[in-house]
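User: For a benchmark we're assembling, each entry needs the component sequences followed by a predicted structure for the full assembly. Here are entry 17's components. Please fill in the structure.
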Amino acid sequence: MTVQEAKFEYLLRLGDSSLIIGHRLSEWCGHGPILEEDIALINIALDFVGNATSILGYAGQVEGKGRDEDDLAFMRGEREYRNLLITEQPNGDYANTIARQFLFDMYMYFLYEELKSSKDETIAAIAVKSHKEITYHLRHTSEWMLRLGDGTAESHERLQNGLNDLWMFTSEMFDMDEVDAILIKEGIAPDLTNVKASWEKRVHEVLTEATLQIPTTTFKQKGSKEGKHSEHLGFLLAEMQYVHRAYPGAKW
Amino acid sequence: MDDTKQLEAFEAKIASGAKIEPKDWMPEAYRKQLIRMMSQHAHSEIVGMLPEGNWITRAPNLRRKAILLAKVQDEAGHGLYLYSATETLGIDRSELLSQLHTGKAKYSSIFNYPTLTWADIGAIGWLVDGAAIMNQTALARGSYGPYCRAMIRICKEESFHNRQGYEIMMHLAQGTPEQKALAQDALNRWWWPSIMMLGPSDDQSPNSDQLMRWKVKMESNDAIRQRFIDRTVPQADFIGLTIPDKDMKLDAATGHYSHGPINWDEFFEIIKGNGPCNAKRLKARVDADKNGAWVREAATAYAAKQTKEKLVA
Amino acid sequence: MTDSQWPVWEVFVQANPGISHKHVGNVHAADAEMAIQNARDVYTRRSEGISIWVVPANTISASSPEDQGAFFEPSNDKPYRHPTFYKIPEGVKYL
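Assistant: Structure for entry 17:
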C-alpha cells in the first residue's frame, strides 16, 4: 500500500465517522427534550457535516480520480464506508444518544489533538479548526453525562443502560492496521496507544463523577476498517443517498 | 389613575409611536390578543421545523444539507425568541406549550401540508418564508416592544432563508427536465397554501379598528397578500416557472397582479384540524415533550443537588 | 415539579473587546453552565459575541414605570452635570 493510498483510506475513516454521526444527530431535529437542546444538537450536527465536507473533499484530492466530497458521500455503498460502528448506532433515547456522543467526542478530542501536529498540512489545518468545535461538543456532552448520571434514578438507569450497550463498540476506535502503520511512520497520523490511554483516563473520571459504573463488557465489535458494518448503516445510507442517486449527474 | 385615564394615556403613547414595554399598564384585551398572536407565531416556528427537518437526512448534497441544518436551527431560535417575548406578558413557556399540545393554541396552517420532494424545501424557503417576511416586517413596526425586537432579529435572519429557497428553485428550474418538473410541481402545490397563510380575506376577517389603533395588527391580510403576490410573480417568471393560477394577470393601470378565487374552504378545514398533516405534526410535538420530560427532570434534580453542595461547602 | 421548562436566564453578550455587555434576550436552563452554553448556541450563531453573562431572571430587580417621574425627571433640571453647560472661550485648549 502506498502512502497516498493509506492517506485516502485514513481520510475516509475520519470523514465518514463525522458524516454518519452528524446524520444521526440531525435526526433529533425538532424532537429534542427542550427547545434549547434542539438548537444545541443541530449546532453539533452542523459542525460534523462541515468537518466531513472538508475531510472528504481532501480525500477526493488525495485519491486523484476526480471524485469530490459529494461523490464520496453519496455514491459509495455500505461496504465502502469506513465510519466507526459506534457512529451508525441508532439514537435510542436521549441518554443513549448522549452516551454515544460522549464516548465518540472524547475519542475525537484526543485524536484531533494529535492530528493538529500532523505533517500533512491540510490535515493539520482541518484538525486545528475541528479541535475547537470538538472541545465545545465534549463540554456539552460531559455536562449532560453528569446531569443524567447524577440526576434522577430514572436518568441514571437509562444512561447506564446506554453505556453498557455501546461499550462493545469502543475498542475498535483504537485498533491500528497497515494504514495507521504507514501514516505513523510518515508523521501524518498518531499512534493510537496514547489516545487510548488518555481516553480511558478521562472517560473513567467523568463516569465516576457521574456516579456511573464502568461497563464490564469484554466483548468487542469491530469491522468498520474493512467496511463491515452493522445492519443499521444500509438503511441510513439508503435514506441519505436516494435523492442524489435518483437524478444522476444533476446539480443542486 | 382610573382605567379610562390609563387607557387614554396608553393609546396616546401608541399614537406617538412609542413602544409599550412589559411593565407598562395595558388593557387586558391588548395583553390577551398579543399572547394569542405571539404564541401562535412561536408555535409556527417550532412546528415548522418538522416538515423541513424531514429533508435534512435526505438533502441531495453536503452543501444543501449544511444550509438546511442552519436554517432549521434558525427556526428553533426564532421560536425561542418569540416564546421569550410572549413570556414578558406574564405567561410561562410551559403553559404556552401545553396550550399547543392540547390543541387550544393554533399554529400556521401552512405547516399542515406535507413536504413530498426535495423541491418542497426550495418552495418553502421561497414562498412560505417570503410570505412570512412580508407579514413580519409589518409586525416589526407594531406597538409592543419585545415583539418588535424579536421581529427585527427574525427578519434579519429570515432573508437568508428566503434566498436559499429561491436558489434551490433556480437550480432545479435550470437543471434537467426532471428537476424542472420537480420545481414546477412544488410551486403548484405550495402557491395557494402560501397565499392563504397570510390569513382570511378582509371581508371574512374584518380588522377591528381597535387592533389597528393599538398597532397589534399593522396591515390588512389582503394588503400583505397583494404585496407578496406582486413581488413573487416576477421571481417565478425569471426562472421560467408558472404560477398555477390561470386568472393571474398584471393590471397595467394599478401595477398589481389580480388573482383567481382562493379556496377558503380548504383553509378553514385545515384550521379546524383537517389538513393532511395536522395530526402527525401535533403528535410529533407532544411526543417530543413527553419523551423529554425525564431529561428535563434529571437536569433540574442535578442542578438542585449542585446548589445544595455549594451551600454545604 | 410544576415548570417543566427550567428557569429563565437573561443573557448579556459582549460583541467586541472593550465595550459593555449588552442584553440580548434570554434562555431557559437548569443550571448556569447550561445557560451559558444555550446562550452561546442561541445568541452567537452568527459570530455576534466574544463573552457571555447569564443572570437568573428572578434575581433582577427593576424600577417600575410609575417611578419614572420621581426617578428620572429630577435630573432634567441639572444641566450643569453635562460638559456642554459650560462656555469656554475660543482658543483655550484641552478642556
